[in-house]
Amino acid sequence: MQKKCKICIKNHEIVVNLKNTTTAELIWKSLPLSSDIHLWGEEVYFYTNLASVLENDAKDVISYGEIAYWPSGKAIAIGYGKTPISQSNEIRLADRCNIWGETEYDLKKLKDVRSGEKVEILRC
Questions:
Q1: What domain range includes position 66?
Q2: Neighbouring residues of 29: CB distance < 8 A, sequence distance ≥ 6
Q3: Which residues of the chain fall short of a pLDDT of 50?
Q4: What is the CATH number of the domain that holds 60?
C-alpha cells in the first residue's frame, strides 16, 4: 500500500504520496515532525533533525508537485514557483535535493504562508 503523509500549514493540508526511497523511509519513520516555516522566493522550507545523504537522482530543478529534502540543510523544501536563482519559470532549489514525495495539492495556495508559522507532518 502507498504510504502517505500530510503537511499541515495554516489552513493547508498537503497530502503527499511517498516515493520508494531511503529519504522517504527516513521521513516516514520520523513522523510526526514539526518545525517553523521559512520562505525563499516561491519556496517554503523548514528544518528537521534528520540526516540523509544525497541520493543518486537528486536534483536542484524540480517539477511542480514534487516534495524535496535538502540533505546539506537538513530541511524539507516545497517549491511552487520561482526562487531567487530560478532561470525563466523553473522551480530551482538552493542545492540538489532528494525527491521523497509528490502531491496533487495546488501548491500556489502557499503564497499566503509567512515565515515563522508552524508546520506539522503527520501520517495519513
A1: 2-121
A2: none
A3: none
A4: 2.40.100.20
